[in-house]
Amino acid sequence: MEINSAGARKLSETTVYVREAHRYTYRGDVHEETRVGYTYAFHLFFHGQGRVAVAGRSYPVGPGSLVFIRPGEAHSFHLSSAAPLEAYNIYCDLWGKPDRLFSRFSFQTSRPDPELMPSAVSCPELEALPVHARVPGHSPLTDWFVRICGWHDPSDGNAEALVSSLMKAWLLHAHGELRSDFPYDRRIARLLERMEWEPEARFSHEEMSRECGLEKSHFYSLFKSATGMTPKAYQLRLKMKKAAALLLESDQSVTRISEQLGYDTVHYFSKQFSDFYRQSPTQYRSLRRGGGL
C-alpha cells in the first residue's frame, strides 16, 4: 500500500499487521532498559506494579494499565519492587506489512536505523490515543487484547488475518472508549473498581445499590448501562477471570484456588468454571499454560 505522508488518514483505513503478541514478565533485565521501537507497541499490564518511561515522561502502571508507544519513542520499564511486572504485549504495523522484518527495537547501545522506521502517516484519530490509560476489567478491550496474544501464531497462515482483523477492531473501539473522559456514572465506576480489586468478595444487589446511594431499580439500570451485564453476571465474569489467572500464573491446586475465590466447595467452582470456559479448570491449565518472550 502506498502511503502519502502529507495526507491525513482515518483509523478505519489502517492495514494492520501484527508482528508479535504475547504475555511477558518484566524482571529488570537489560533489554527492558532504554530502547526505541520500529513498530507501534501496546502493553496491557495485568500483574505487579512499576513505571514505564516514554519519551521522557514516567507513568505508573499496574493491573489494567495500558501503555501505547509510537515508533521512534524512547522508552523503558521499571519495577517498583522485587515482584515481577507482567503484561500482554502487542507489536504491530498499522499501514501495511513492511518489506523488511528485522529487529523490533534499537537498544541504548546502538542508534535506530532510519530505514527501519515506518513511513510518517498523519492520522488524527491515532494521535488522539493516550500514551497511558486505564482499561476497565469489563471492557471488551481487555478480552480482545488477550485473545490476540493467545491466537497469534506465525506458523498458522489463518492466524495472521485473524489477529490483524481483531487488532483493527480493537483500535477502532479504543479510539471511542479511551478518549471518553468518563463514560459512566462515577458512583458505578467506584464500585466497579472495587469489584475488580476484590472479585472474591460477595456483594449482594442490596449492598451494591446501598454503597452507590441508589434505589435498587436505578442502580440496576446504571450498572447494566455501564457494563452491559447484570451485577450477578459481572461478578461471575470477574471471578472467572481471576480463576483463570491463578490457574496460569500459580501452582496452587484447584481446591486451593476455589477456596481463595470464596467457594464453599471445589465442585461448585469447577462447574461454574466449566460452564464459563467450556473446559474444566485442569484442562484449562494444561492447554493454555505457558508464556511468550
Automatic annotation (TrEMBL):
Domain HTH araC/xylS-type: 186-287
Transmembrane segments: none
InterPro entries registered for this protein in UniProt: AraC-bd, Homeodomain-like_sf, HTH-like, HTH_AraC, HTH_AraC-typ_CS, RmlC-like_jellyroll
PROSITE patterns reported in the protein's UniProt record: HTH_ARAC_FAMILY_1 (PS00041), HTH_ARAC_FAMILY_2 (PS01124)
Pfam families: AraC_binding, HTH_18
Ribosomal protein as UniProt keyword: no
Keywords recorded for this protein, A-Z: DNA-binding, Transcription, Transcription regulation
Molecular function per GO: DNA-binding transcription factor activity; sequence-specific DNA binding
SMART domains assigned to the protein according to its UniProt record, in alphabetical order: HTH_ARAC (SM00342)
Keyword Transcription regulation recorded: yes
Top-rank taxon: Bacteria
Name assigned to this protein: AraC family transcriptional regulator
